[in-house]
Design brief:
The complex is a heterodimer of chains A (207) and B (350).
Chain A (H helix, E strand, L loop, with lengths): L3 H4 L20 H13 L2 H18 L23 E3 L15 H5 L5 E7 L5 E8 L9 H5 L5 E3 L11 H4 L1 H4 L22 H4 L8
Antiparallel strand pairs in A: 1-4, 2-3
Chain B lengths: L1 H11 L8 H33 L15 H11 L10 H20 L7 E2 L11 E2 L9 H11 L2 H9 L3 H32 L4 H7 L8 H4 L1 H14 L11 H4 L9 H25 L10 H22 L5 H28 L1
Antiparallel strand pairs in B: 1-2
Helix pairs in contact in B: 1-2, 2-12, 2-13, 3-12, 4-5, 4-6, 4-12, 6-7, 7-10, 7-14, 10-12, 10-14, 12-13
Classes of the chains: A alpha+beta (207), B mainly alpha (350).
The structure holds iron/sulfur cluster (2 copies).
């Protein structure tokens, strides 16, 4: 393999068209002709027409671009990685996190701190879970590694706050129990693909 | 403003007896108030139109559809700190914006802005006063207006040189370049209509074009019309000739160091000049106003059209370099204007 293919930057399928640019006229007569030609070309009026067309488009055909930001928001991609959310199980309402600690292990900026203990039923319970958003780089590894889809990235990108702790406690990130019916299944970073069921194969136990 | 109108009253009051000094005073106050208000409103219209042409909304949040934005801007301008730079020539720096604003309004003294009317009798003190359409119907009307607008260029020139700022200095130099370029074209282009009408007074121009669209001078003098429009854009330093304060090149040109109301005066002067040029174009080329019925509406529409054209052009066209402006004015427009004058003269002789 040579270097040629790396030097070829025209990788796309674009149809490049060479513009037929005139050469700058050298003789006085040529310059004069150019001036006359440009004077009587309707180019300037084409420009006026374009702006008027855009104005009509904007006013009467609903093609206004403006989003009044704090009041209106553009939809963002489900793969956007904003402030984390901890999801609950839809059936029982219990939080999904099983306290496996994978997210804490994988976090490359070491900003997840968690602790677990056994509750009275000898089930593992998350006793402490915080994310230090002063350090988090929103890489999404924690969401990707989580086996339960318990920690995911939400859509909340307005993260200006008076203190970092505002977002970082487990209870803050957890879906409120009374909003459980509104909990969206996460289809973003690290989520199972829509055709995940088809990809599941029976574990070969033959050997 | 008052000085000029007062003097013109003395010279003129003998000819038309019903124009009284009180009427002229009232007219002067009306012009000052209304044109200042329109100039303020013009900034709103300009922002809105530019926004629509770029498919934006423009000012929206202060008042219904952002209408009160003008008031917000006014409050801002009046309450901002008035900064005079350390090394500036303080007196000239402070007086320069006044020149721009004052000359713009003085020019309006000789322009027919609204149709004449008589104040109803039941109003105390001023009742029954005849308010003329022109504060001062000078017999050299057009020359006076163009001269005043040209004198207004002293504002940017002095402001740019007095403020001890390199951008200001460049702005001042460009003012000189622009002034030297377009002024010849303005004068020469309007010479041909003057020859046809045989008078410099706006009232005579208006009378010469009375009686329908067919009598408009724009049909007889299309070349002069186009030349005057181009020169008018340069005169009001609008895009494509906004070399004086083009942000992309010279920060803000002559206005770089100005703040608060001094900057606001430049602004009001510019908008008043836009209105003046619109009025001149409407009266000299597009038939002006007629006293009867809906005449006032038509002249408003004509003026609004030219005002709109200035905004439209600003949204559509790029601006030229100073050398291109000089080239355009001296090598293209001036010869055309001279040829136009000569041909007009020959046609009139034959
Ligand atoms: S997004 Fe990345 S940095 Fe932030 S908590 Fe998850 S793994 Fe750590
Ligand atoms: S990876 Fe998921 S399940 Fe495991 S501790 Fe983190 S959030 Fe809980």
């Amino acid at each position: 393999m040579g270097l040629e293919q790396f030097k070829n930057r025209n990788v796309g399928q674009q149809e490049y068209v060479m513009l037929d640019l005139e050469h700058t006229p050298q003789s006085p007569m040529g310059k004069f002709k150019q001036v006359v030609k440009r004077t009587f070309k309707p180019e300037l009026f084409v420009g006026l027409g374009v702006t008027m067309r855009e104005m009509i488009n904007a006013l009467f055909r609903g093609q206004m671009h403006t989003i009044k930001y704090p009041f209106e928001k553009l939809p963002i991609s489900p793969r956007y990685r904003a402030i984390h959310e901890m999801l609950r199980l839809l059936e029982s309402g219990h939080y999904r996190c099983i306290g496996c600690g994978l997210c804490e292990k994988i976090c490359i900026s070491n900003c997840i701190t968690m602790d677990t203990r056994y509750d009275e039923n000898q089930r593992k319970e998350v006793s402490e879970y915080t994310i230090n958003f002063g350090r988090c780089i929103f890489c999404g590894y924690c969401a990707e590694v989580c086996p339960e889809l318990a920690i995911v990235h939400g859509q909340r990108y307005e993260t200006a706050s008076e203190q970092r702790a505002s977002f970082s406690l487990f209870e803050d990130m957890l879906t409120p129990i009374d909003k459980l019916n509104l909990q969206q299944e996460y289809d973003g970073f690290g989520a199972v693909t829509p055709n995940a069921d088809e990809n599941i194969k029976k574990t070969p136990l033959a050997y | 403003m008052e000085v000029v109108s007062y003097r013109s009253v003395e010279t003129f009051v003998q000819h038309i007896p019903e124009v009284t000094a009180l009427g002229v005073w009232i007219k002067a106050i009306i012009i000052l108030a209304v044109i200042s208000a329109i100039a303020g409103f013009g900034t709103y219209v300009e922002r809105k139109v530019l926004a629509f042409m770029q498919r934006r909304l423009g000012p929206m949040h202060v008042g219904p559809y952002g209408l009160l934005q003008i008031i917000a801007d006014g409050i801002k301008l009046f309450t901002k700190e008035d900064i005079v730079p350390q090394n500036a020539n303080k007196f000239i720096f402070m007086v320069a914006p006044v020149i721009t604003a004052a000359t713009a309004f003085i020019a309006l003294a000789a322009v027919p802005v609204f149709p004449d009317f008589t104040i109803p009798e039941w109003i105390p003190v001023i009742g029954g006063t005849f308010v003329p359409s022109i504060a001062a119907d000078l017999n050299i009307g057009i020359l006076f207006v163009l001269g005043m607008m040209a004198a207004g260029l002293y504002g940017p020139l002095l402001a740019g040189m007095a403020q001890a700022n390199k951008w200001g200095l460049i702005g001042a130099a460009r003012t000189a370049v622009q002034f030297l370029s377009y002024e010849v074209v303005t004068g020469l282009s309007i010479l041909a209509p003057i020859m046809i009408v045989g008078s410099l007074s706006f009232v005579d121009f208006n009378a010469a074009q009375a009686g329908g669209i067919a009598n408009w001078l724009v049909w007889k003098q299309p070349v002069a019309f186009v030349l005057f429009l181009i020169a008018g854009f340069a005169e009001t330093n609008r895009t494509p000739f906004d070399l004086l304060e083009h942000e992309a090149e010279v920060v803000s040109g002559y206005a770089t160091e100005y703040s608060g109301m001094r900057w606001g005066m430049f602004f009001i002067g510019e908008y008043a000049n836009m209105i003046t040029i619109s009025v001149i174009a409407a009266v000299v080329f597009l038939g002006g106003y007629s006293a009867d019925g809906m005449g006032w509406l038509w002249i408003m529409l004509k003026i609004a059209f030219f005002f709109m054209l200035m905004l439209w052009v600003r949204a559509a066209w790029p601006h030229v370099r100073p050398d291109q402006l000089m080239w355009l004015c001296w090598k293209v427009l001036m010869p055309i204007a001279v040829i136009n004058v000569v041909i007009t003269g020959i046609v009139m002789m034959v």
